[in-house]
Amino acid sequence: MTTQESIFEIFSEENLAGVAYKNKSLKRSIIDHLDQAGNTTITDLTVALNISVPKTTSLINELVTDGIVKEYGKDDSKGGRRASMYGLVAESGFFIGVDIKNFHVNLGLLNFKKELVNSEMHVPFTLANTPESFKDLIQVILHFINNAPVDKKKIFAACLNLSGRINSEKGYSYSYFHFNEEPLSQIVENAIGIKTFVENDSRAMAYGEFYNGTVHDEKNVLFLNLDYGIGLGIMIDGKIYRGKSGFSGEFGHIPIFSNELICHCGKKGCLETEASGQALIRLFKERIEQGHTSSLLKDKKMPPNLRVADIIQATLNEDVLCIELIAELGEKIGRGISVLINLFNPELVIIGGILADTGDYIRLPIRSALNKYSLSLVNNDTQLRMSKLHEEAGVIGGCLIARHNLLSFNK
Amino acid sequence: MTTQESIFEIFSEENLAGVAYKNKSLKRSIIDHLDQAGNTTITDLTVALNISVPKTTSLINELVTDGIVKEYGKDDSKGGRRASMYGLVAESGFFIGVDIKNFHVNLGLLNFKKELVNSEMHVPFTLANTPESFKDLIQVILHFINNAPVDKKKIFAACLNLSGRINSEKGYSYSYFHFNEEPLSQIVENAIGIKTFVENDSRAMAYGEFYNGTVHDEKNVLFLNLDYGIGLGIMIDGKIYRGKSGFSGEFGHIPIFSNELICHCGKKGCLETEASGQALIRLFKERIEQGHTSSLLKDKKMPPNLRVADIIQATLNEDVLCIELIAELGEKIGRGISVLINLFNPELVIIGGILADTGDYIRLPIRSALNKYSLSLVNNDTQLRMSKLHEEAGVIGGCLIARHNLLSFNK
DNA sequence: CATCGTTTTTAAATTATTTTATTTACGAAG
DNA sequence: CTTCGTAAATAAAATAATTTAAAAACGATG
Fold first, then answer.
1. Which CATH topology does A93-207+394-407 take?
2. Over the stretch B197-215, which tens digit does the pLDDT of each residue have?
3. Which nucleotides of D are covered by protein (CB under 7 A)?
4. pLDDT number for residue A381
5. Nearest to residue A355, comparing CAs of A347, A366, A344, A346?
6. Considering only the top CATH level, what class is A218-386?
7. What's residue B2's pLDDT?
8. Class assignment of domain B217-387?
9. E strand segments, B181-263
10. In whole angstroms, what is the distance from residue B296 CA to residue B328 CA?
11. Contact residues, chain B, for A169 at CB < 8 Å
12. B3-91 has which CATH code?
């Protein structure tokens, strides 16, 4: 029996009854506990799961022969005989995260102990809603899998992060690659030969930041993905909140401005029309046309194909116009966040996405807008923190989601 | 052993281990199942809880001798011996809900089977943040308890609904009756001699509507309490979402207007300044001053102490000005709701609170504003429904919260 | 460096639960 | 109205878990 088979046995949805069912759930609980609490002793598990020592011992032994758990030496002395520490086996399974951006793809490989063992960042790729773009993507993924330093059979699952509207339960992506009735997850799964899930990019980043990033004890956390659009990942009680069909967090399209700009979603007054990376480029052009200047100009003219990354870089190089624009953006985003704080009373709001790389240039205007627009009692309750994982948030989150979905913890 | 003692034994937080612990949790699970699924058979429980028939039988028998469960005749024939139906005993315990409004109090008494056995609506009372008002309130509650048609000892818990910021976990009310450091829940508990919880009024209404009202299978539901202020109760995955400190749902104070009106919260541009019952009265006055007329005028002058209820009544009597104002209000509320829909992608939004009594006069403008302001894909996903429980939502919700907290189901 | 207190682990005894078999109850068909 | 098929409830047997007791492992103390 290979490791893979035994893992699938434990995590299969097969309907067992009676003792077999109970043992299976107990084993899952043990893995869940080892997953969350790290390596522990049998005594620890005994109190955590409310089962006796002999029972725990026999279950652990089975998991050890299954290859999912192994002994990690002895515990520190607590006065008597030292207890054996048990923990998950890092090499017993791997998971892939594919984070698809507008102009590149990031990929990562995670082991069973939630450690990133391999990653490829900034693989060139242009996201377009065409079959060609999709084919390119599959090639990028296959290349990553073939170059991965592990047995392909031990890669249990993958997760694709895409912006736009995603129904991760059913595997549909509505904004990209929705060419026929078959769910995107299924199409990719067939193409790469690995169980595949899809998830909204901001939610995946939120998940990564939540479980492997800047979040410690907080349970209700909002993650902002400030990119060309404005995404929002909502974590409630430690779980991703997706809404009815997976369309939650359309923060960029809340109507809080009284302008006449038509958003690409077709509505007027969306937050995204004033406070996104796209808006940033538009505002930059407008200022240049009004006669302002910037270090980004080539021969005193607008550079062609100006990207958000350029403006971020210029800001960090202390370009005055860019600093001003980022501050304006921050003010507007802060006003948006104050809506979120009033509604969610979160413990923590994380500023992520490429625009978060501007650091204090964007953080301080956001902070002051929050004081201006949200109820102080509620606002004081909420921490504002910058992303810790930066551009790795997506891949790590994707890997963790693949892992979580396959193992179906906490369900 | 009295019934009360035995109930507290099962639901006590006392730390048992081993078999005793397991039996206790199984008993709780049985009660939980009977609570949600109604009367069922032993075979049913066997598959639902994954335990054997003899084990289920012995647990049920213990619960029967405890007085919490009893037999409710035989099941319909399915071909063989007819199964006994078991269910909760309605009279084994009672719960009180106290819904405190600006100008009156509603009280209700719920039995163990979630049936409202007694209620007193519109008990005269004026809510003010003074010790006198609080004393009056206690008198109202004591009067209700003493007149209740059940043994006072069998009333296990009560819940107080108040508007404003409430930390229900710790029992604090910040907007009303926060006279000293002791939690309000504790003060009331000492005064009435019954375990007491406090909850935000809109959340309690949402809870009532969710479990005994218009909600059927939906799990992610938003409830709008349109009163003098605008409250929001958020139900996620069947649970009340309270946020970090219980300040979630401050919907009335999201800054989505660019007006110069100072809200009573101290900020500008709050939804409440334009779309609440308070705003309605202000707008009515303004129109009258501009020369408009209405059936509500006395000698062609503003009536003193005009209440929202008066405008609602006039609307239902087809007063043209009031109908217009309600439509304007609906439009603005709809714009606010579109923010919620974009963020939450809920299955259902319930329009409740006194202004919901205007029915289609407010529903239709809300509906059309939603089409105008929210993403169609997301919007089409969400149902809009009017409250079913109307002014009883609060009391029923309060009773159910008291019951839930005491029994601590799903925890 | 042997002994003692402490804690984990293993083993044996006890208790509890499930599984299987039997009995009881019910409706329908002959 | 008896018989037969089916399903629930009960009883007995078998299995599995917990509890208690004993052994092993370890550090500290004298």
1. Nucleotidyltransferase; domain 5 (3.30.420)
2. 999 999 999 999 999 999 9
3. 5-12, 15-20, 23-28
4. 86
5. A366
6. alpha beta
7. 38
8. alpha beta
9. 195-200, 221-226, 230-236, 239-240
10. 18
11. none
12. 1.10.10.10
